[in-house]
Amino acid sequence: MNLDFSQIVPYTPFMLKGIWATLEFVIFSIIIGLVLGTLLALCKITKVSFLKWIANAYTSIFRGTPLILQLMIIYYAIPQLTGYDIPIFLSAVLTFGLNSAAYVSEIIRAGIMAVDKGQMEAAEALGVPYRPMMLNIILPQAIKNILPALLNEFITLTKESAIVSTIGYLDLMRRAQIVGADIYRNFEPLLLAGAIYWIMVFILTKIGQAIERRLRQGD
Amino acid sequence: MIKAKEISKVFGNNTVLKNISTTINTGEVVAVIGPSGSGKSTFLRCLNLLEEPTSGEIYLNDKKITDKKVDKLVVRKNIGMVFQHFHLFPHMTVLDNVTYAPQKVKGLSKSEAQKIAKELLAKVGLTDKENAYPNRLSGGQKQRVAIARALAMEPEIMLFDEPTSALDPEMVKEVLDVMKDLAGTGMTMVIVTHEMNFAKEVADRVLFLDDGVLLEEGDPKEFFKQPKTERARDFLDKVL
Ligand SMILES: Nc1ncnc2c1ncn2[C@@H]1O[C@H](COP(=O)(O)OP(=O)(O)OP(=O)(O)O)[C@@H](O)[C@H]1O
Ligand SMILES: [Mg+2]
């Protein structure tokens, strides 16, 4: 074994800054994903077939193509087509937000569909209009199905976020590579980055379990 | 009063209701019986427009409610429904279950709605369960809450779709007793049921559905003693 972590010690502050760089763009992406995903989910459950078609097509495209391809297209194609020199951060947030919206919309749609059909009938039989029925009866029950799955999506997003290193965004992954090139040793910085990713995911998982436990107490 | 005029219902290529006509008068208690799959639930659900009849008309107090222009929600305000599987709102307490629709649909204040709800819960014997969540109740208690929830809207008519079929035998009576009391108050009721003794005792009229056809209709005493059709005789032989 020929491992030497002493060399990366001076680089640790540089690497640790990558945590924030990663989290920053993951958080922005999540917000876009949530807002757009909710809108798409609403389109999917309406009876308006045009909106349904759009939302389904959107989901199909973003789930049916590689994430890295979507990233490249947004990063390279937008400047080429529009002349707008899109910043790295914006391309990253946009790609992950748009992509995540497709998954989030499916999670929300499935969560709503999983609510017992009888609930909607009971509300309808009482003469409750659509909006309050959704807000007061269906969504509070759907949340229980939705939240755990959403947290899973965020964990996936955090891990997949390493792809943005390919367009030069200085996230944790990219920083590990830079350090590796600097000290001519790749294994140690990659190992450190891996440990940090694992800790982030571990914490998110624990938060998810805590939320799930609290939701289940209500049953 | 609610009147069905030649209603039919088709699902895909399955004709589930065939030209059913009948009138349920104010204060009348009508039992709907028939074999499984004969269309009893579908008939009941047509009455409050949970299902839209494929053809035919339904009148509520001489107002044609199958008209496209009629607001279904307004119709349903006046028709309460109780389901086999209760369908209480699991994330609300018993009291909130009962007060929700009067507040949201009729615009009652919280205190007005609670006053009505508490009276009804007392009537169905569940005053002590006000703050419980549905998952803490027995089946019989759940169904009594569901009845109170429907009554809180002060409907003119109550529909029951096999209200005791999902209950353990020892809980059937408490629910039937509540329904009997309700019938005694002059409520108009349509009850799909397999409880033949209850139908015999409480109903003013029996409808016998078979394969989507309203095959017999009449006085319960006569119907149960001497059904006119072969099909009804067979059915009664099996269930009695
Ligand atoms: N939403 C639906 N879509 C398609 N077919 C349906 C639907 N609802 C009911 N049916 C069919 O209509 C027929 C009558 O059903 P219905 O539920 O009215 O019978 P029922 O007399 O209430 O039976 P049960 O005693 O089993 O409750 C059945 O064959 C059923 O499969
Ligand atoms: Mg039925």
Question: Could you write a compact summary of the structure shown?
Answer:
The complex is a heterodimer of chains A (219) and B (240). With 219 residues, chain A is mainly alpha-helical.
Oligomeric state: heterodimer
How large a portion of the residues of chain B is in β-strands, by DSSP E? 25-35%
The CATH architecture of the domain at 20-169 in chain A comes to: Orthogonal Bundle
State Rg of chain A. Answer: 21 Å
Give a count of the beta strands of chain B, DSSP E runs of length 2 or more: 10
CATH class of the domain at 20-169 in chain A: Mainly Alpha
The rounded Rg of chain B comes to 18 Å
- Uncertain spans of chain B: none
User: How far is the first residue's CA from the last residue's CA of chain B?
Assistant: 31 Å
Main pleated sheet of chain A? none
Which fold name corresponds to the CATH topology of the domain at 20-169 in chain A? Answer: MetI-like fold
Query: What are the segments of chain A in which pLDDT stays under 50 over at least 5 consecutive residues?
Result: none
Helix content of chain B: 25-40%
Shape of chain B: globular
Distance between the termini of chain A: 53 Å
Q: What spatial form of chain A do the alpha-carbon principal axes imply?
A: flat
Helix/strand-derived class of chain B?
A: alpha/beta
Compute the number of strand runs of chain A.
Answer: 0
| Structural class based on helices, strands and sheet pairing of chain A | mainly alpha
Strand content of chain A: under 5%
Which sequence of SSEs, written as H and E, runs from N to C of chain B?
Answer: EEEHEEHEHHHEHEHEEHH
Please, could you describe this protein's structure?
The complex is a heterodimer of chains A (219) and B (240). In chain A, helix 1 runs antiparallel to helix 2 and helix 1 packs across helix 4. Chain A has 219 residues and is mainly alpha-helical. In chain A, 80% of the residues lie in helices and 0% in strands. The relative contact order of chain A is 0.16. Chain A has a domain of 150 residues: MetI-like fold (Orthogonal Bundle). Chain B has 240 residues and is an alpha/beta fold. In chain B, 39% of the residues lie in helices and 25% in strands. Chain B is built from 9 helices and 10 strands. In chain B, the strands form 2 sheets. In chain B, strands 6-7-8-3-9-10 form a 6-stranded mixed β-sheet, sandwiched between helices. Chain B has a 4-stranded antiparallel β-sheet with strand order 2-1-4-5, covered by helices on one side. Chain B is globular, with a radius of gyration of 18 Å. Chains A and B meet through helix 5 and helix 6 of A and helix 2, strand 6 and helix 3 of B. Adenosine-5'-triphosphate binds next to strand 2 and helix 1 of chain B.
